[in-house]
Amino acid sequence: MPEGAPDLGTMNVVVCVKQIPDPADPGALDPTTKTLKRDGKLILDESDSYGVEMALQLVAAAGGGEVSLVSMAPNNEVSGIRTALAMGAASAILVSDPALKGTDALGTAKVLAAAIARKSPDLVIAATESSDGYTGTVPAQIAEILGLPSVTFAKSVAIEGGVAKVQRQTEAGYDEVECPLPALVSVTAGVVEPRYPSFKGIMAAKSKPVDMLTVADLGIDAGRVGWAGGGQEIVDIVAAPARQAGEKFEDDGTAHERIIAFLENLKIL
Amino acid sequence: MGLSKVWVFGEAADGKVATITLEILAKARELSDDVTVIYGGGDAPAIAATLGAHGATSVLATGDLGGGLLGVAVASALAAVIAAGDGPAAILLGTTQDGRDVAGRLSVKIDAPVITNVVDLELAGDKIVGTEPVFGGVTNVKTTFTTDKPQIVLVRPKSFAAEPSGGAPAAVGVLAVPDLGATGGAKVTSRFVEEATGPKLDEAAVVVSGGRGLGESGNYALIETLAKLLKAAPGASRAIVDAGWVPYSYQVGQTGKVVKPSVYLAAGISGATQHLVGMKGSKNIIAINKDGEAPIFGVADLGIVGDVHKVLPKLIEALQARG
């Protein structure tokens, strides 16, 4: 078995989770600071609920171990983390620091990787991309920082004898990939059906440990994160050309005729 | 003006260059006279003519990776070239599975940022300014680099038009992959191709997509039947892909395919921002949804407020009657 592989029967998994503004109320960019306005309450990114569920199932299948969470959010925000704890994760690390304002994907990966390293997990799970920022680079960045192999875009994950067996989505279909642990896997939405937190789970989550850390606690120089550490800057925010809505009809039983006329007019028919 | 040297991450399957690579090449050759395609694979000679015809002067290839994943191998190889002082001004990659892996790993290796989800880019001096749509495409953010390191940019599909420029075949060179250590541990053991009949989703002139409004997975047959009659590709919203009704390869949207057909017909799709990003570049949009307030109607040229279970069967019947 490779070095660092789990003892038979236990499996420790860290899941990266993001707490985002409710997509039903996506907010806006602050024109002065050029960062996302984060006024309202944050929720667990739905994309991350799949990773949490996957982790819980893998630990259960291994017969023991622990699912813990790492997250980075402003203002010690924990409401989204509590949702994942209510699903069954045991504990969390939250990195919250004013110095992180404006941090890009690479800076985020540096922070999360430093937090993950404290747990020395057998497996790190992340979503392929967040629902609000969707850069989709953070999982590979974390793996590179931690010196781990990674399999991104997993649509199925199983662990057998210290090896992750993953079906990885491709343009044409999927690849079967085998990857020795420790490793990082990013999972797609739909990989598993996330459980709803039970009432008992919600109550238990209130007392589960959430370790609040700053950038300095992780030994990261504040100058390497935030706006200053990013190496990029927003130069303009403009409204995209809007698409005009056309005609709208209530179906009176003849809608199909309107569609056919529309297609004939375009010479599709 | 222009950049001294630009790298384009090239992707291909079965000797055929991916459309996204040709799209990026069309833009890259505007930025620089020295465009090198970076390729992870053993069949570079088979694609050198196509790459050259689209503006690449050379192609650097790793050779066969023996089942090793492409992202970490290519990123490590590029970092070594950059460390040796032969790096480019910019590296352009497609927003694909492997493109994101390469960009993410490389950004750490050279400690440089990635500008992602770019749909347009321009030069300001020797700096790239990328345009990225946010909030489902209602707002565009323009971002530029403030470092002097190679500028890593992830470009979304369908952002530029692929057009040959008539260049000679690209010269094939070797991209040496260093020892990857533990990071190279993942190996592909087998590959599965999901057979699809009919036109490809991201190339079809007509796309017919279904969503939650279809009610249950069995009703997706209505979409497939209609697609066949219109010689269209069938598509899907993320909701029904997540629910397991159809494979991921059917998904239109931010996380799936970006499509720009002549006609896009959305049946039972409400129009979440994640879906709109993938289809609102279509020339003509028809939407059928029972909720008259659904956001999809905000982009539809022809909006039908009605029940897909009534409209689709009648439409299918009428098309079948035409023969």
From TrEMBL, chain A:
Domain Electron transfer flavoprotein alpha/beta-subunit N-terminal: 33-222
GO molecular function, one term: electron transfer activity
Pfam families per record: ETF
Alphabetical UniProt keywords: Electron transport, Transport
Gene Ontology CC annotation, any one: cytosol
InterPro entries according to UniProt: ETF_a/b_N, ETF_b, ETF_beta_N, Rossmann-like_a/b/a_fold
UniProt cross-references to SUPFAM superfamilies, sorted A to Z: Adenine nucleotide alpha hydrolases-like
Family membership: Belongs to the ETF beta-subunit/FixA family.
Protein name: Unannotated protein
Organism: freshwater metagenome
UniProtKB/TrEMBL annotation, chain B:
Family, similarity comment: Belongs to the ETF alpha-subunit/FixB family.
Stated name of the protein: Unannotated protein
Keywords noted in UniProt: FAD, Flavoprotein
Residues covered by the Electron transfer flavoprotein alpha/beta-subunit N-terminal domain: 6-188
PANTHER family from the UniProt entry: ELECTRON TRANSFER FLAVOPROTEIN ALPHA, ELECTRON TRANSFER FLAVOPROTEIN SUBUNIT ALPHA, MITOCHONDRIAL
SUPFAM superfamilies for the chain: Adenine nucleotide alpha hydrolases-like (SSF52402), DHS-like NAD/FAD-binding domain (SSF52467)
GO MF annotations, alphabetized: electron transfer activity; flavin adenine dinucleotide binding
UniProt record, GO biological process: fatty acid beta-oxidation using acyl-CoA dehydrogenase
Keyword Flavoprotein: yes
